[in-house]
Design a protein that fits this description.
Blueprint lengths: L14 H32 L5 H32 L8 H7 L4 H44 L2 E5 L5 E5 L5 H4 L1
Antiparallel strand pairs: 1-2
Pfam families: FlgN
Keywords: Cell projection, Cilium, Flagellum
Organism: Jatrophihabitans cynanchi
Length: about 170
C-alpha cells in the first residue's frame, strides 16, 4: 500500500511527481473500465439485455478516457526519461530502478496495481466474450429449430402454424 506521507505527488519540483500523478489517474481510469466490464457481465448473466447498450456506451466512454490517459502517461514518462537522459523505451520498472527514494517503492506499487487491474480486465473481457458467444449460439440454435414454420397455441387453445418470418405480435391477437 502506498504511503501518502512518503512522497507528495503534487510536488512538481520533483520530476517523478508528475509521473506518479498520471499513474494514479490511470489506475482510476482502469477501475472505471473494470466497473463497466463488470456491469456488462452482470447484465449478460442476469439476462436483462435491455441494459446492454447503455452499459456498452459506458464502457466505450471509459475506453476513450483510457486512450487519452495512456497518451498522457506515455508523454509524462517520456518527458521524465528525456530529462534524465534515459532511453526512449524506458518503462516503469526502468524508472523505479534509477529513482531516488521514496519513488522506487511508489513506482513499483503503481506498476503492480496496474498489472493487477489489466489482468482483471482481461479476465472480465474473456467472461463477456464467453457469455456473448453462448448467447449467440443459443439464438442460432433456436432459429435453426424454427425452420420454415413453427406451431404455437392460439387464444382458443387450438394449434396454428406460423411462417418463420418476423411477425408483429398484434397480428396474432
Amino acid at each position: 500500500m502506498l504511503n501518502p506521507r512518503a512522497a507528495d505527488p503534487t510536488d512538481h519540483a520533483d520530476p517523478f511527481a508528475g509521473v506518479v500523478a498520471v499513474l494514479w489517474s490511470e489506475r482510476e481510469i482502469l477501475e472505471r473500465v473494470l466497473f463497466a466490464l463488470t456491469t456488462e457481465r452482470l447484465i449478460l448473466e442476469s439476462g436483462q439485455t435491455r441494459w446492454l447498450a447503455r452499459a456498452d456506451r459506458q464502457l466505450q466512454d471509459a475506453l476513450e478516457v483510457l486512450r487519452t490517459g495512456e497518451v498522457l502517461r506515455s508523454a509524462e514518462v517520456q518527458a521524465l526519461a528525456d530529462q534524465l537522459n534515459l532511453p526512449f523505451e524506458t518503462n516503469l520498472a526502468g524508472l523505479a530502478s534509477i529513482a531516488p527514494e521514496p519513488w522506487p517503492y511508489v513506482l513499483n506499487e503503481h506498476r503492480t496495481a496496474l498489472r493487477g487491474l489489466v489482468a482483471e480486465i482481461d479476465s472480465a473481457t474473456t467472461d463477456i466474450r464467453r457469455l456473448l458467444h453462448a448467447g449467440a449460439q443459443a439464438i442460432g440454435e433456436t432459429l435453426d429449430r424454427l425452420g420454415d414454420a413453427f406451431s404455437a397455441y392460439t387464444a382458443d387453445g387450438g394449434v396454428a402454424t406460423f411462417p418463420a418470418r418476423p411477425i408483429f405480435i398484434d397480428e396474432q391477437a
